[in-house]
Amino acid sequence: MKIAYLGPEASFTQLATSQIFNDEKLIPKSSILDCFTAVKNGDVAKAVVPLENSIEGTVSMTLDYLYDFKNISIEAEVVMPIAHHLLLNKNNSDFDMIISHPQALAQCFHTLEKNYKNSARKDFSSTAAAAKHVAEHPEKKIAAIANSYAAKLYDLKILKKNIHDFEHNHTRFIVISLVKNSLKLKHKILGEKTSLMVTLPEDHAGGLHQVLSVFAWRKMNLSKIESRTLKTGLGNYFFYINVASEWHPTISENALEELKSIGAEVRLLGHYEEYLLG
Ligand SMILES: O=C(O)C(=O)Cc1ccccc1
């Protein structure tokens, strides 16, 4: 089975993917969009992409593609600890630019402001792509933020360890596919959840309250609600909602029916387990 992930090798997504699918063929993709497209076209059976970080919050691209790719579902969520290091070419001693994935640059923002204020910062498609670029360009005065496996694989030295701003740094990754399935893994289960994509009926007072009350009076515990722009004009949003309580089929299906009856558009993205990786 082929599994796509946000690559190249030694990205955090690859570290997560290889813990979930250690016997499968892992296919690196250079963007989150390419991962979704590979699943949609059937080039791969599943893909793993980052969804949310405990310091920086939601990876908005992932949320947008979950909205846009109407046939894609979530099969599992995995949570992995994240440690960022500053990496430099072994033959270089200084740098005036730091490159990495925007989430990594943001997770290290205060450390960079305090210690490397004079270095420019540049976004790369992943931390591993940044590390690879540093390795391939010893003539450039650049450093990368990436993990220790990237340092090893791309033969870079670690200039400063653990530069993320907060000690408890975790990222959630999701496994996506075209089938409605709940992936069973051997890792520790953190809980079960259900993800929904909800678009409100036309703007009116109390619209969101009406939607939330559907869950409230059924005692369905929401663990996340995030709004993103629909890109159809200012003030138009969709909502990504996670229900953390047990998904009782009858009660839950009634809830979805009630949401539809008040004019909301609802898509069930998946009912699945959340696991903790090492
Ligand atoms: O860039 C990577 O290595 C990724 O897999 C995305 C990411 C970036 C920062 C923290 C977690 C995941």
TrEMBL record:
Entry annotated with the keyword Amino-acid biosynthesis: yes
All copies of domain Prephenate dehydratase, residue ranges: 2-178
NCBIfam families: PRK11898.1
SUPFAM superfamilies: ACT-like, Periplasmic binding protein-like II
Main function: Catalyzes the Claisen rearrangement of chorismate to prephenate and the decarboxylation/dehydration of prephenate to phenylpyruvate.
Keyword Lyase among record annotations: yes
Domain ACT positions: 196-273
InterPro entries assigned to the protein according to its UniProt record, in alphabetical order: ACT-like_dom_sf, ACT_dom, Preph_deHydtase, Preph_deHydtase_CS
EC number: 4.2.1.51, 5.4.99.5
Protein name: Bifunctional chorismate mutase/prephenate dehydratase
Source species, domain of life: Bacteria
Molecular functions (GO terms): chorismate mutase activity; prephenate dehydratase activity
One Pfam family of this chain: PDT
Gene Ontology annotations for the cellular component aspect, listed alphabetically: cytoplasm
Catalytic activity: prephenate + H(+) = 3-phenylpyruvate + CO2 + H2O; chorismate = prephenate
Keywords (A to Z) from UniProt: Amino-acid biosynthesis, Aromatic amino acid biosynthesis, Lyase, Phenylalanine biosynthesis
Pathway: Metabolic intermediate biosynthesis; prephenate biosynthesis; prephenate from chorismate: step 1/1; Amino-acid biosynthesis; L-phenylalanine biosynthesis; phenylpyruvate from prephenate: step 1/1
Single Gene Ontology BP annotation: L-phenylalanine biosynthetic process
